[in-house]
Amino acid sequence: MTGTPDTPWNIHGDQQDLPGMLDFAVNVCQPSPPPVVLNVLEAALPQLAHYPRHADYARVQEALAVFHGVSPSWVLPLAGETEAFDLLSRLPWRHIAILHPPYTEAEAPFHNAGYGDAIHHYLAEDQLPVLPNYCDLVIVGNPVNPTSYLRSRAELAQLRASGRIVVVDEAFMDVVVPDYAAAATFLPTVPTYGRGATSAASAAATSIQKLLGGDLIVLRSCTKTWGISGLRAGYAIAHPTLVERLTTCRSPWTVSTLSLAVLRALPQPALQEELATIRTRIAVEREAMIRSLTMAGWQVRLPASGPFLLAQPPRYPGTVDTLRLGLQEKGIAVRRTDTFPLLDAGWWRLAVKDVSSVQRLIDTVRVLTKEEETLA
């Protein structure tokens, strides 16, 4: 079964964002790459005449391995997280559990691979579901997209079982406040530069690899955090046996030269300092956005830890989807949520934005509501 552009698992926020619109629909953390990333890309441009080299791939593995305290054989560079789901869909599975609400693009490759009858949705909000023993693949996001809910590492560990692979999508973990991320992520970072870096990395490798075991695949993305969604870059950390299984079914040269350059640069001090700035900005803007929406009569799903919020606008005379389309005509894009299984059109996912952008959204909703009330 192949998904068409309007099937739920193929609908993405960028389909609701047109050029020039105020974009709340896509969770890109900044409108363009910061200078530190542009410098990395510019330095790699002369290499574009060559196919991505194995040596470059290996250097990415080494850099990310030290960064996360694992051996290089545990690192799988990817052309974005979506490549990981595509590779997983090429392997045999009996019962695929997707914890909802989820990142819908994770599901698309499995439908396209003919796994429709093997895909099962489980609601995972207040607590995790009890899965059947024969479930051999679980996919869960942390923080959850679109609710922005962050689960603890201990809670997610309950999903592990003999004969089962658990995929944890940590696409937005790098912008979670460090104190919260420390208790949630399966991929802590270790010092990669300065005194004691080598010994720290060596000491961490054994404990981190033991934590991951042979049944856990953790995914990371750098495209939305760094404003490079058009580039496609991410990676997986997993036991070498799992990395090998995924590698054997992939096409050659899927990770571009520019993507490899960015992935290799991620642990560098300049990018980590910029990341800390991005993370702080998102946290401040998220709290301000929650206050503004709440004071304006919106419902916001809390707690929230990611660069987006699940929010419901105040009572509207028409349907919320009609309101969404009205916003679109006014130049504002929001992400509909009826395409997320187990959610309906009454909520929107909103990217975290600055105060003035949020106020424009609030004011425009008020204007559209008054116009609809007048017509009623």
UniProtKB/TrEMBL annotation:
Keywords tagged on the record: Aminotransferase, Pyridoxal phosphate, Transferase
Cofactor dependence: pyridoxal 5'-phosphate
Every Aminotransferase class I/classII large domain range: 125-363
EC number: 2.6.1.-
Record carries keyword Hydrolase: no
InterPro entries for the chain: Aminotransferase_I/II_large (IPR004839), NHTrfase_class1_PyrdxlP-BS (IPR004838), PyrdxlP-dep_Trfase (IPR015424), PyrdxlP-dep_Trfase_major (IPR015421), PyrdxlP-dep_Trfase_small (IPR015422)
PANTHER family (alphabetical): HISTIDINOL-PHOSPHATE AMINOTRANSFERASE-RELATED, THREONINE-PHOSPHATE DECARBOXYLASE
Coiled-coil region: none
GO MF annotation, one: transaminase activity
Main EC class the enzyme belongs to: transferase
Pfam families reported in the protein's UniProt record: Aminotran_1_2 (PF00155)
Top-rank taxon, per record: Bacteria
The protein's name: Aminotransferase
This protein's record includes keyword tRNA processing: no
The family this protein is said to belong to: Belongs to the class-I pyridoxal-phosphate-dependent aminotransferase family.
Provenance organism: Lawsonella clevelandensis
